[in-house]
Amino acid sequence: MKVQDLEIVENKTFDEIKIGDTAAFNKVLTKNDIEYFAVITGNANPVHLNEDYAQKNLENHKIVGHGAWVISLISNLLGNHIPGPGTVYVSQESQFHHRVEVGDTLTISITVKEKKMEGGLVIFEAKAVNQNGELVLSGTSVVKAPKNKMVGPRVKLPEISLKSNVDYFASLISKCDQLEPVVFSICHPCDQTSLQGPIDAYKAGLITPILVGPKHIIENVARENNIDISGVEIIHTENAHESALKSVELCRTGRAEVLMKGSLHTDEMMHAVVQRDTGLRSSRKISHVYAMSVPTYPRLLLITDAAVNIYPTLEDKVDIIQNAIDLAIVLGVETPKVAILSAVETVNPKIQSTIDAAALCKMADRGQIVGGILDGPLAFDNAVSIEAAKIKKIVSKVSGQADILVAPDLEAGNMIAKQLDYLAGAATAGIVLGAKVPIVLTSRAESPKARKTSAALAVLVAHNRRDRKRKELALGKI
Fold it and tell me: Which of 33, 147, 257, 436 lies most in the core, judged by the most C-beta atoms within 10 Å?
């Protein structure tokens, strides 16, 4: 039985302890462990917390665990096992022999070397060894052992969780500060939320909106909600259907570079988008990507597809993944890590999503999907937790550090995104890719802030497309 899993704890009194008594347990170092320890101690040394700093300045380019964290693990054994409850730490001498990195498994052990009647002191040899058998720490622990016997339930420790203080969306919006506004065709913004979002983005200098919808309704909404639309162009339409057709036309003819959904139903606007002759189809499959800033996850997380493709085929998933990789690169992720999700992490002929995942990874190996590192099938826990992957003995460049989660179908993707939103406090934004222009396809229930952030995503994509087009023109490709 593992020491940390004991429900009942029993100490060993000074008289019961014998020379040679020993105890040990294993502990995997996770990124959370490092961050917890940094928060508790206030030690914000970048060698432990800043991956960019470690990449540039440390010998093996990886962040390392605090040495004092390794020492602290010794107290687990002293306080829980030998001597156990009632132990008082007197001193600790330690020498460090090897660094410890995220994912390392340490075996911590203590062995009784000496007892001193005067003061009831017990002296232990303590050491930590990693999964490769390398000595990480050696030292001597001196404690005052309890005189009285104690048996009782283990004290239940409170659960704690980390919330990132990094506002990933603020950094996205700040990337647009030096970019000129992009013209947005706003399709049927006929309620407060769908009008406020693009106007906020307009006031922030992100976009130049063209409001497409019944003019009297838009003006009434603005007036009733104190939204200043002075100077903003309005193109009048009679109804939502006409708004969809006109908004798509503005993008198809180049007058607008982004299409943004207002208060109409998604399928009504997308019906106009996918029309073969008058819509915005490209050679790519259209797909949706959620961008999520999750307080408990140390990077911006992209989830696809949660809104457009209900039951995507293997061929569909190629474009879905490529769209998401291209977006991640635009957002500054040099080589996005893509986790292709299923219920299990092994290929099972009875679970189609596992077969698709294996095929997609091989397609990436053959250059049919480019720009990212793919792995799958992966269960959700293996995709976002290094510790979970370690326990299941999954060796992967993606596990625990995925930038993109690829859901097996729309139902799964939508559930993942909504759970992170409502249970994990994630901030969300969304964009549709694969059409001739980026499409901001926010839910009618989403806040103006989410719409503004989604607009920032589309602005970055639109400028990236401009840059690519200029390069292609210079090279004579178009």
Answer: 257
Per CATH, the architecture of 3-149 is what? Roll (3.10)
Query: How far apart are alpha carbons 144 and 120 in whole angstroms?
Result: 6
The first and second tokens of residue 240, run together, are: 């939502």
CATH 3.40.718.10 domain span(s) along the chain: 168-474
Superfamily of chain region 168-474: Isopropylmalate Dehydrogenase (3.40.718.10)
- Cα distances (angstroms) measured from residue 337 to each of 5, 112, 192, 301, 305: 34, 47, 38, 10, 16
Give 209's strand partners: 184
pTM: 0.71
Q: Distance between the two ends of the chain, CA-based, in angstroms?
A: 68
Cα–Cα separations (whole angstroms), residue 395 to 30, 376, 391, 405:
15, 11, 10, 18
- The H-or-E segment that residue 67 falls in is helix 67-80
Q: Name the residue with tokens 């994990």.
A: 424
What are the tens digits of pLDDT across the range 370-423? 999 999 899 999 999 888 888 888 889 999 899 999 999 999 999 999 999 888
Q: Residue 320: which of 291, 295, 299, 289 has the closest Cα?
A: 289
Cα–Cα separations (whole angstroms), residue 377 to 248, 347, 355, 399: 37, 7, 8, 11
Strand ranges (E), 117-148 = 121-129, 135-144
CA 258, 264, 269: angle at the middle one, nearest 5?
50
Position 1 pLDDT exceeds 50? no
* Per-residue DSSP letter, 3: G
Give residues with Cβ within 8 angstroms of 191, minimum separation 6. Answer: 221, 262, 263, 444
Distance CA 371, CA 376 (A): 16
Extended beta strands in 11-104, E state = 22-28, 88-96
Sheet strands side by side (includes 439-440): 233-236, 207-213, 182-187, 258-261, 439-440, 427-433, 287-293, 301-304, 404-406, 337-341, 373-378
- What's the whole-number mean pLDDT along residues 310-337? 95
Question: What single string gives the DSSP state of each residue in 330-364?
Answer: HTT-SS-EEEEE-SSSS--TT-HHHHHHHHHHHHH
CA distance 380 to 385: 8
Q: What is the DSSP string of 217-277?
A: HHHHHHHHTT---TT-EEEE-SSHHHHHHHHHHHHHTTS-SEEEE-SS-HHHHHHHHT-TT
Mean pLDDT of the chain: 91
Listed in order, the ranges of the chain carrying CATH 3.10.129.10 are 3-149
The answer to whether 391 touches 410, Cβ cutoff 8 Å, is: no
What pLDDT, in 10s, does the model give residues 57-91?
Answer: 887 778 899 999 999 999 999 999 999 999 999 99
